[in-house]
């Protein structure tokens, strides 16, 4: 009898499998790559949104990067995991010679690779097609922190939905939240242009915190309402991440 593969090799193999499945599903490619690029190109070239800076792409690119992270963690991971659970895939993987942390690590690893592809594609489109460049005081370290916190928060929300709801309900709710974050999360429309009753709600959303943190890190498209310091969005996004992951761990059902 052959020995089980080392855990890290198994994690890498499972992550690669998840990436191949994502690439083969047209709806995943649409949500994670096509829609963010389309949103960036449309709103950057069409003066329909009152952006707070002279060049629309400066404001839009950080917001659309946050939209891509939402698409990867909440929509892609949440829906795929929900259907894996519905079809019994997770239960079978649980019986494999791989620790439970390995399953989570593989899924998060696949999401991180996908996000790198998304960021490279969006930055290439913005730089080569729209003439964007980061601000003089941009911070690569803070950008990585924003990506990491955003991944944790929205992957946690995706796993929370996938582990507690039926696959069909997860599909509907994840797409609904995606649309809500797009409209209210400061991604293409500054929250000070929202109806006054919605502004306090929008200010507390993880999408708003992520978009603000990315704008601060890139020193790009800073709106009047963007915090001068990254502390507030970091704390808000971290709180969402801790709450989402904590609830997902407590409530997740494997079958």
Assess the beta-strand content as a share of residues: under 5%
Q: What structural class is derived from the secondary structure elements?
A: mainly alpha
**Order of SSEs:** HHHHHHHHHH
Helical amount? over 70%
Low-confidence stretches: none
N- and C-termini, Cα separation: 29 Å
Tell me how many strands there are: 0
Give the oligomer, counting copies of the same chain as homo and different chains as hetero: single chain
- What is the global morphology? globular
Q: How many discrete domains?
A: 1
* Tally of contiguous helical segments: 10
Q: Can you give the mean pLDDT?
A: 85
What is the radius of gyration?
Answer: 18 Å
Major beta sheet summary:
none
Explain this structure.
The chain is an all-alpha fold and 255 residues long. The protein has one domain. The protein is 74% helix and 0% strand. The protein is built from 10 helices and no strands. It is globular and about 55 Å long.
In short:
This protein has 255 residues and is mainly α.
List keywords for this structure.
single chain; 255 residues; mainly alpha; 10 helices; globular
List the helices and strands and how they pair.
Elements: H1 7-24, H2 26-45, H3 56-86, H4 89-94, H5 100-130, H6 140-164, H7 167-184, H8 199-203, H9 206-218, H10 231-251
Helix pairs in contact: 1-5, 2-3, 2-5, 3-5, 3-6, 3-7, 3-9, 6-9, 6-10, 9-10
